[in-house]
Every structure is written in structure tokens, then in C-alpha cells.
Specification:
Layout (H helix, E strand, L loop, with lengths): L1 H45 L1 E6 L3 E6 L7 H17 L5 H12 L4 H12 L2 H7 L3 E12 L5 E12 L3 E15 L10 E18 L1
Antiparallel strand pairs: 1-2, 3-4, 4-5, 5-6
Helix pairs in contact: 2-3
Length: about 210
């Protein structure tokens, strides 16, 4: 009888110990889940930005990782440079203004290419011949697997004279490095080692 009583006491202790372990595990799990949810809620709240509109009303804005938009910004940077550099009008001030803005987006390699064209009288012929030049960018291929990022641009160049219009193919290459954002360089990139790989006539239309 005494032995049976001892066994019952031992079984009771085991049950109590098991219940205590299960209860402790459950408490730890609930506490861990609560902490995780708290951090998750705080992270979601940090992604919300409230903007005061002229001191009158609050607007909700959502933040996101800046790196998500870098490929789009890179292509826009390259596109903008080509539009400024290759869009020319028969006006010296307009040419100089466009080129000055283009040079803010690139290193000395772009200036060296401009200098070479200038020494050959290219810009003087644009002005004296009353020539309009514009560019249409077809595609921009960027490799973001290695830094600095290599870029190749495929575009069409249109040279419009009073007697004819020439359509040319234009293929360029360059590298992109990260730079400081500014009013003159809103995307925060800089073009290096700019080169023209191909620039030849495709079609001449007599007007």
C-alpha cells in the first residue's frame, strides 16, 4: 500500500513537471510571437512618412528601398545625357547650353569627344548650314552585375537640312559610377569612358 502511494506521488510529480514544461514552452512561444509582431509592426510604421502640406493637412507617403529604382535611374541618366549631347540646333548659345548640361553628367571622356568634333569644325557646320540634329534612343542595356556598371546605348540620329534629312545609326558605350545627387545630376550617376562605337548613315531622304 505504501509502495502504491509512493508511485502515485511520483506520477503526480511527473505530471506536474510535464504541465510546467508545456506551460513554460507555451508562454515563451506567445512572448516570442508578440515580440516578433511588435518589431514587424514598428518596421511597417517606419515605412510610412507623414508630409505636412503647406501647414494645412497631413498626407501619407510610403518609403521604399532606394536601390529598387537604381536601374531605372541609371537608364534615365544615360538617356538624358544622350539627348543633351546629341540634340543640336543651329544656334551657338543653344549648343553650348545643351553641352554644358551634358558635361555635368559625364567625365572628361565626353568633353574629349566634343573637343575632337569641335576641332573638325562639326559644330560650325551645324550653325552655318542651318542644320537641326536630334536623337531617338531605342534601348539602353545596363549590366548591374559588376561595378562600375557597363552600359551600351542604341539610338537613331536625325540630321535635318533644308535639302535633305539623314537618318543615322548611333551605338555608344560607357560605364556608370555612383555619384552625389544634385540639381544638375538628380539621378546621382556619372558617365565614364564614353565612346561612340558606331555612327553611320542608314537613309537619306531628299526634301
Amino acid at each position: 500500500m505504501e509502495f502504491k502511494t509512493l508511485r502515485n506521488i511520483e506520477n503526480s510529480f511527473r505530471q506536474i513537471r510535464l504541465y510546467a514544461i508545456v506551460f513554460s514552452t507555451l508562454c515563451i512561444a506567445i512572448a516570442g510571437y508578440a515580440v516578433w509582431q511588435s518589431y514587424r509592426f514598428a518596421e511597417l510604421q517606419r515605412q510610412k512618412i507623414y508630409v505636412l502640406d503647406n501647414g494645412k493637412s497631413l498626407m501619407l507617403a510610403l518609403s521604399q528601398d532606394a536601390n529598387i529604382n537604381r536601374p531605372v535611374e541609371a537608364r534615365e541618366h544615360v538617356r538624358r545625357f544622350h539627348e543633351l549631347f546629341f540634340t543640336l540646333a543651329p544656334d551657338k548659345n543653344a549648343i553650348e547650353n545643351n553641352l554644358k548640361r551634358a558635361f555635368n553628367l559625364a567625365d572628361k571622356s565626353a568633353f574629349d569627344y566634343y573637343k575632337d568634333l569641335s576641332e573638325k569644325g562639326y559644330y560650325n557646320r551645324i550653325i552655318s548650314g542651318n542644320v537641326q540634329q536630334r536623337i531617338e534612343v531605342d534601348s539602353i542595356v545596363c549590366n548591374f552585375d559588376t561595378y562600375p556598371y557597363s552600359v551600351r546605348t542604341y539610338a537613331r540620329q536625325f540630321i535635318i537640312r533644308s535639302s535633305n534629312a539623314t537618318k543615322r545609326t548611333l551605338i555608344t558605350s560607357c560605364y556608370l559610377i555612383n555619384s552625389v545627387r544634385s540639381d544638375n545630376n538628380p539621378q546621382g550617376f556619372n558617365i565614364e569612358k564614353f565612346r561612340v562605337l558606331e555612327n553611320k548613315d542608314l537613309e537619306v531622304i531628299v526634301r
